[in-house]
Q: What sequence folds into this?
């Protein structure tokens, strides 16, 4: 019995010893590279943001006055060739107008009692990029609006991001090939892709002026961008292999 147990134990140790003697496989060397890409596309449209602002002693009066002014604004914009579906409300709000404070005495100077201000912000879309400055000037000539800003955009925004991503991948591969060649090795299989951000740099002409300042002006000095630039980042990881 003792001989059988000893033989079995010896056999078990003999079978286990090769496994215990094994060493971990060498780690496959890799290279990780961050690529950056850009793409530029011609804008398709411009968005003009304006606001209609009115004041009154009550919320109802301020809202009613704003509705009347907005109707005049809509009629004015449509008379310039803009379709009704290209004019949208961004937001509408009525806020209490706080009386001014005298800085030296810190006393509140109540002039005319309590007032409320109604603001209706509108977005106007146009595809006539060359005429956007003239359009803005004609809109403001009505005297009912405050010109806030102009931005430019693409119909298919994903196209710009995709082209920038493709450029980022090419940039990452180029860098990896340069490093591998300098180190005397070659790129193996691609083992990992980490997506970074892909976003446009939106040209945004920020201009704030009262309509009264624009009366008589035939156009607002705006220069549409030739292109909208998209940028993207990506991180790629390749295995490295010895050159044959």
A:
């Amino acid at each position: 019995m003792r001989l059988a147990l000893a033989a079995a134990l010896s056999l078990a140790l003999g079978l286990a010893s090769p496994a215990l003697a094994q060493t971990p496989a060498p780690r496959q060397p890799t290279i990780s590279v961050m690529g950056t890409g850009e793409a530029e596309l011609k804008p398709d449209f411009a968005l003009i943001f304006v606001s209609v602002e009115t004041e009154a002693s009550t919320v109802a009066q301020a809202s009613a006055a704003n509705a009347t002014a907005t109707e005049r604004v809509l009629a004015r914009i449509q008379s310039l060739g803009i379709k009704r579906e290209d004019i949208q409300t961004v937001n509408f709000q009525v806020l209490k107008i706080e009386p001014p404070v005298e800085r030296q005495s810190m006393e509140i100077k109540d002039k005319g009692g309590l007032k409320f201000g109604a603001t209706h912000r509108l977005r106007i879309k146009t595809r006539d990029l060359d005429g956007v400055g003239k359009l803005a000037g004609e809109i403001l000539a009505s005297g009912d609006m405050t010109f806030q800003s102009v931005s430019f955009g693409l119909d298919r925004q994903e196209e710009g991001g995709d082209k920038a991503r493709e450029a980022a991948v090419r940039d990452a591969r180029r860098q990896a090939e340069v490093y591998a060649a300098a180190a005397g090795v070659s790129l193996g299989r691609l083992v990992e892709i980490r997506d970074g951000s892909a976003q446009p740099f939106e040209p945004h002409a920020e201009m704030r002026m009262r309509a009264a300042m624009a009366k008589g002006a035939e156009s607002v000095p705006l220069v549409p961008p030739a292109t909208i630039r998209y940028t993207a980042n990506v991180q790629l990881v390749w295995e490295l292999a010895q050159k044959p």
About this structure: The first helix runs from residue 2 to 21.
